[in-house]
Amino acid sequence: MGEEQKPTPENMTMMQGFEWNVPDDHKHWTRLENAMSSLKATGIDNVWVPPGCKASSPSGNGYDVYDLYDLGEFDAKGGVGTKWGTKDDLVKMVKKANEIGVGIYWDAVLNHKAAADHKEKCRVQEVDEEDRTKTISDPYEINGWLGFDFKSRGNKYSQQKYHWYHFTGTDYNADNNKTSIYKILGDDTKDWADSDEVDGEKGNYDYLMFADLDYDHPEVRKDVIDWGTWLSKQVILKGIRFDAVKHFSEEFLREFITSLNQRFGEPWFFVGEFWKDSLDDMHNYLERMNHKFSLFDAPLVYNFSKLSKTENGDLTKVFQDTLVLTKPVNAVTLVMNHDTQPYQALEAAIEPFFKPLAYALILLRFDGYPCIFYGDLYGIKGEHPFPPSCGGALPNLALARKLYSYGVQQDYFDFPTCIGWVRYGTWDKKFGCAIVMSNAGAGEKRMHVGEMHAGEKWTDVLGWGEGEVTIGDDGYGLFTCPGVSLSVWVNKDAEGREKFGKFDDDIYKA
Q: Cα-flanking dihedrals φ and ψ of residue 119, to 5°?
C-alpha cells in the first residue's frame, strides 16, 4: 500500500482592499461587504483593510490615527464614523468575509498619534531634518499638541490618556507656529528609540510624523498590546499589516506579535511596510524578527518600474536582487499599493502596458505571496483617476492562479524580451498552465507541458492569444503571445474555464 496522497494546498492571494482616493462617503465597509463574494469567486483569500481607527477628521485615511480604540463608534474629530464607515458597518463586513472564507488583515498604525485634544508644555531640542542625531538648538520649552484625553469615549475599553511624556518627538510649536522636528526631553534617559531598534536612515528614523509614540514608556507598551487583544475580540482577524515598521521599536513589535500568538495559539499572518530597496537591510530586519514576519518586496516593484520604462528591457533579470528570490517564504509580492499610485511615487510607478506582465509574474509563479491592489482591480478615484488596470484581465489572472498555477515550475527565461514558464500541475490539480510574455514584438516559445497532455487543445484564458495549441505526443506545444503582452494557455476543457470573464469591477454602482 502506497502512502495516501495529500491534497495540494490551494494557492493563496491577498488584496489591498482600498486605495488612497476612495470617496469619503463612509460607505467603504458596505461596498467591501457587497463585493466580498465576487472577490472570493475570483481567487482572493484575504483582504488587507485600511486603518479603521478614528483619524484626525472624517476624511482621514487612518494613517493620521487619533484613537486606536474608536472603530467608528464615538462622536469625535468631526463625526462618529471613520472615512470607511461606522463600527457596525465594519463588523458586518468582517462577518460576511468570515462566512464565505475570506480572512481580514488589519492595517495597524502604531508609530504615532495625530489630532491631540489639547496642548501641553514640554522641554525639547530641535534636530536636523536630515540627521536626527544632531541637535540644532539649545533646550527650550514649546507648547505642543500632545494631550489626548478621548472625552467622547471616556474610559470605555481603555483608561489610558496620553501626555507629552508618552512621546519622543513632535513637529509643531503652537507658541510661535513653527514647524520643525522637536525631540522631547524628559529625564536623562529619554531619547529617540535605540539605533538598533529603528532604521538608520536620517541618522535615526524613529521620528516620522505627528506625535511620535515612545515605546520605552511602559504605559505606552501596555496600552498598545492591550489594544491588539481588544481589537481581535471586536473583529475576527487573520493577520495584521504594520505601517511604518522602520520607524518604531522592533523590540516592541516582537513583544506585540508574541502576545497575540500566545493569546490565540494559531499564529496570525504579519507583514510590515519596510519600504526600501536595500535587500541587505530587509534581510537583516527579517533576521531580527526571527523570520516570523513578512515584508513587501519593494525591490521587485522597482525592478518592474525600471523594466516598464526601458525599451527592450531584459525580462530575464526581473527577479534579480529581490526578496522573492532570496527569501520567498517572507516575501509579499506586489505591483502597486496606495504608496505607489503614479502621482505619489514616480520612481516606483509602473507603466500601464507592463502591469499585466508584472501581475502574471507575481500571481502565476511558485514563490511569494501575491498582493493585488484595489486600485488596479476597481480603478482609482480623485484628482488623478485611473480605470481598472490590465485591460480588465487582472481578475482572470487571479482566477488562473487559483485554478491552474500548481506543481513543478519550468522556466524558459532564454531571451531578453520574451520569457515563458510552465506549471505542470499536481495529482489533484492536474491541468497546469503555460505562460508566454513579451515586452517587444509578438513572442513564441516551444515549451514542455507533459506527455500526459498529448493531444489536448489549449487556449489563452485571457483571450489575448489567438487560436489553439495542440500538445504533441512528446508533451511540447508552441505557445505564442501578442506583442507587448502575454498569454496564459490552459486546456480549453479544463475545469473552471466557464468562470472567466465574470468579475464585476463596478464597485461604486448605486
A: -90, 150
For residues 297 and 404, what is the distance between their CA atoms, to the nearest angstrom? Answer: 24
Q: Which of 243, 297, 456, 460 is catalytic?
A: 243
Q: For 113-217, which CATH class?
A: mainly beta
| Interatomic CA distance for residues 207 and 396, integer angstroms | 42
Give the predicted TM-score (pTM) of the model. Answer: 0.95
Active site residue 243: yes
Up-side HSE of residue 298: CA atoms within 13 Å toward CB? 19
CATH fold label, 14-109+219-404: TIM Barrel (3.20.20)
Ramachandran assignment for 501, one of left (phi > 0), alpha (psi -120 to 50 degrees), beta (any other): left
Q: Tell me the C-alpha distance between 485 and 436, whole Å.
A: 9
CATH 1.10.3720.10 fits 409-499, yes or no: no
Going across the sheet that includes 418-423, the strands are: 409-412, 418-423, 433-438, 485-491, 457-460, 469-470
Annotation marks residue 428 as catalytic: no
**Per-residue pLDDT tens digits for 368-421:** 999 999 999 999 998 888 899 999 999 999 999 999 999 999 999 999 999 999
Domain coordinates of the chain in residue numbers? 14-109+219-404, 113-217, 409-499
Catalytic site residue from 33, 117, 273, 376: 273
3-state helix, strand, coil in the chain (%, to 5): 25, 25, 45
